[in-house]
Write a structure and sequence with these properties.
Blueprint (H helix, E strand, L loop, with lengths): L47 E6 L2 E6 L2 E6 L3 E2 L1 E2 L7 E6 L5 E6 L6 E6 L6 E2 L8 E5 L5 E6 L10 E6 L6 E2 L8 E3 L5 E5 L19 E5 L4 E4 L7 E7 L2 E6 L6 E6 L5 E3 L9 E5 L3 E6 L2 E6 L5 E4 L1 E2 L10 E4 L4 E6 L5 E6 L2 E6 L6 E2 L8 E6 L5 E6 L6 E6 L7 E2 L8 E6 L5 E6 L3 E6 L5 E6 L8 E3 L5 E7 L5 E7 L5 E3 L6 E7 L5 E7 L5 E2 L6 E2 L4 E7 L21 H25 L16 E3 L7 E7 L2 E7 L14 E7 L4 E9 L1 E4 L5 E6 L2 E6 L17 E4 L1 H19 L3
Parallel strand pairs: 4-26
Antiparallel strand pairs: 1-2, 2-3, 3-5, 6-7, 7-8, 8-9, 10-11, 11-12, 12-13, 14-15, 15-16, 16-17, 18-19, 19-20, 20-21, 22-23, 23-24, 24-25, 27-57, 28-29, 29-30, 30-31, 32-33, 33-34, 34-35, 36-37, 37-38, 38-39, 40-41, 41-42, 42-43, 44-45, 45-48, 46-47, 48-49, 50-51, 51-52, 52-53, 54-55, 55-56
Length: 733
């Protein structure tokens, strides 16, 4: 499948983008579908990283600090900068709040009065300084930083004076979440910091435990031994409170420093206890997006109903530059325009003259993987406007309404590929299926199903009579198969003994090309002799018919025999007669029969192209030239890692020579006549001649002008559904 930037496996990490979602759903009319519900700002959600002091709670919402009564009520904003403010902690007297803030392009330690005011910066290191808490006595802030670590993974604790000055490193070799004993002589802490990782019920080598460090004795004691997570230690009186997931979700537990007894304190039915923080007589924490307060004297918990009315600038619809979110693209058959998907909309961009066109303009719907029909009339793409991704068609000039072509629920869908006669589309999905779609009726027919991986490398014959594809085998290799449109039969071309990929037909019905990992020349390590398998691919061609000549017949320099003048005239007449016969043959070709392939011995007719062993993919053929991407081996990259470091090349079948089109590129797609190609390179896109020694286009495509109306709330709803679709279709059982 010759594509500029393939949509295969380009699954958006949408879950990580849901940092600012909606408050609780209001009313009951839309309760059946909470995603469509309107926010209720009288009962706000996603209130994070709280701390408590007396009758005041501070928390983070949408990257800003807010305060509210410890009984709930209307919240008041403390900060409003563009950067994020995190980890707020009250001073021992409750008059000041320390927090990690990003006002100047970096996360540092700041102070702000609890009543509000101008923040004061305390640290100036270029790394992330994460506020942990105040030091006993309130004269310094304890924070976590990577500034003294070589790897950046093992972090240390530091203190910085409230009045200003240089930070000092604490004695512990590593440390993070921590809390002092009432007398200040000991400290409960986590050595490892992974409480913000999305590793629920983790039980590996980075599972956290609670330790107690004695400053006078310079001694540590491990006080928890659960194989999972024990974190957020909070020392109150003779009890260390902490969270543990030993019952299946994170709950607050208590460890008696005198008795050594352990008991469970909270018990929630659904959500984890997150980001608990200790005040003078209570613990505040997040649960299901709401804030809850645990009274340490009574053991009772209460939920805070927080009203939060703000301007919600980040939720306002706005016109945005979306050029940095281009997902995939294709070239119009005449190379006059290119089509891209960007931030869920489909755009066409002119080669030189004219306006950019947003064909879809649907903020709450994600459209992706566009492909231009060979006749230039239509653009096909995937869209989730119906609730699941389906195939849609739209006039390429933007006129008229879109047409929903498919209505079948399938697993996550990848690339589309038009047949040359505009009659069918190929579609791959995450259930390893390859589907054939009738463009007229929308009917789907299953072509084949992979064994161990998805079928995403497919190609049409020039007359739309055959489909070639690389299908995964049980051993993880790929083999080349053919699908016959007329009969629906599937035919194997290569065996599972080698890894064969990127099939491609020529444009005359003579040859089938593909890449194959058949070069086994490992590089051995200097000490352990461990083999590194680099540059395994070669390029191969096989003739489709038995009567087709070898594409590379033997060559031999022979002496030219001069002919008499009369013989030359006779030969000229014979040549003229042959030309007339050729004209008659051309007329007959107009009614050409469907491509016939002699399947017996097809793989035995395979011949290698004269190219060095390498890493080859994205094959396409036009005008006697085989175009492809060539990437040098990169340690740790693996055979399937494409992208930067690759180049566009072609092999001239007549001259039997490899030539470079563009030295640096991420991908390309050819125009229908093979005269032009669209390339992607270093964040730019351009159209150039499909000829040797090309330079990047002097005038790249104007993708920087891509603008789309972004409705954040509509996008959040779509992203929420997309996240669950991806969990459904990709997460292992």
């Amino acid at each position: 499948m010759n594509r500029l930037l393939s949509a295969a496996r380009s699954v958006w990490p949408v879950i990580t983008l849901l940092g600012i979602l909606l408050p609780a759903a209001a009313g009951t009319a839309l309760a059946a579908d909470a995603v469509l519900a309107e926010p209720d700002f009288d009962d706000a959600r996603l209130l994070r990283m709280p701390d408590i002091h007396g009758d005041t709670v501070v928390f983070v919402y949408a990257g800003d600090l807010w305060t509210v009564s410890s009984q709930g009520g209307e919240a008041r904003r403390l900060t409003s900068s563009v950067g994020y403010q995190l980890q707020p902690k009250f001073s021992p007297d409750g008059e000041t709040i320390a927090f990690s803030g990003n006002y100047d392009g970096n996360d540092d330690v700041y102070l702000i009065p609890t009543r509000g005011g101008e923040p004061e910066r305390l640290t100036w290191h270029p790394g992330f300084d994460r506020v942990i808490d105040w030091q006993p006595g309130g004269d310094a802030i304890r924070f976590q930083s990577r500034r003294a670590t070589r790897t950046g993974r093992d972090q240390q604790l530091f203190t910085v004076p409230v009045g200003g000055g240089l930070p000092s490193r604490m004695a512990l070799p590593t440390g993070g979440l921590s809390s002092y004993s009432p007398d200040g002589k000991r400290m409960a802490y986590n050595r490892i910091s992974r409480e913000n990782r999305t590793w629920k019920r983790y039980k590996g080598g980075m599972a956290q435990d609670v330790w107690i460090y004695d400053f006078e004795q310079n001694d540590t004691q491990k006080v928890t031994d659960w194989i999972g997570s024990d974190n957020f230690p909070m020392w109150h009186g003779d009890t260390v409170y902490y969270t543990s997931d030993k019952t299946g979700r994170l709950e607050i537990w208590a460890y008696g420093t005198v008795s050594g007894e352990v008991r469970q304190v909270t018990e929630h039915d659904e959500y984890d206890v997150k980001s608990p923080s200790l005040g003078p007589d209570a613990i505040v924490y997040e649960n299901g997006g709401r804030l809850m307060v645990l009274d340490l004297a009574t053991g009772d918990t209460r939920t805070l109903k927080v009203s939060l009315h703000a301007d919600h600038v980040t939720a306002r619809p706005v016109l945005k530059d979306v050029s940095n979110l281009i997902g995939s693209g294709d070239l119009a058959p005449d190379a006059k325009r290119a089509v891209f998907d960007a931030r869920g909309d489909i755009f066409t961009v002119p080669a030189e003259k004219g306006n950019l066109r947003n064909l879809t303009a649907t903020p709450g719907i994600r459209e992706r993987a566009p492909v231009w029909s060979p006749d230039g009339k239509l653009v096909a793409y995937l869209g989730d406007g119906s609730g699941e991704y389906q195939v849609y068609l739209r006039n390429a000039d933007g006129s008229g309404e879109e047409k929903q072509l498919t209505k079948k629920q399938m697993a996550w869908q990848y690339d589309l590929l038009w047949s040359p006669d505009n009659g069918h589309l190929l579609l791959s999905d995450a259930s390893m299926n390859l589907w054939l779609i009738d463009v007229e009726s929308g009917d789907l027919e299953k072509v084949d199903q992979g064994v161990s991986d998805d079928i995403v490398q497919v190609a049409w014959s020039h007359d739309s009579a055959w489909v070639a594809y690389a299908k995964s085998e049980q051993n993880g290799f790929n083999s080349i198969f053919l699908y016959e449109m007329g009969s629906g039969d599937v035919h194997r071309v290569t065996t599972d003994f080698t890894d064969d990929t990127a099939p491609c037909f020529d444009d005359e019905g003579k040859y089938l090309y593909f890449a194959s990992a058949r070069h086994f020349n490992p590089t051995l390590g200097g000490y352990d002799l461990k083999p590194v398998w680099a540059n395994m691919d070669g390029l191969f061609v096989t003739t489709l018919r038995l009567d087709e000549d070898n594409p590379f017949p033997p060559e031999s320099d022979e002496v030219e025999i001069k002919e008499d003048e009369e013989d030359g005239d006779d030969a000229k007449k014979e040549d003229e007669g042959e030309e007339e016969d050729g004209d008659e043959d051309a007329d007959k070709d107009e009614d050409e029969e469907p491509l016939k392939i002699d399947l017996d011995g097809l793989a035995d007719r395979m011949v290698a192209l004269d190219v060095d062993p390498g890493n080859y993919y994205n094959l396409a053929h036009a005008g006697g030239k085989l175009f492809y991407m060539s990437r040098s081996f990169r340690p740790g990259g693996g055979r399937d890692q494409h992208g930067p470091g690759a180049s566009i090349k072609f092999f001239d079948m007549e001259e039997r020579e490899e030539k470079t089109v563009l030295a640096k590129a991420w991908g390309f797609t050819l125009s229908a006549d093979g005269e032009k190609l669209l390339y992607a390179a270093a964040g730019t896109f351009g159209i150039i001649d499909a000829k040797p020694d090309q330079k990047p286009a002097e005038k790249p495509l104007r993708t920087g002008e891509m603008r789309a109306r972004v409705d954040p709330r509509a996008e959040w709803r779509q992203m929420f559904r997309d996240a669950w679709r991806q969990e459904r279709d990709f997460f292992y059982d």
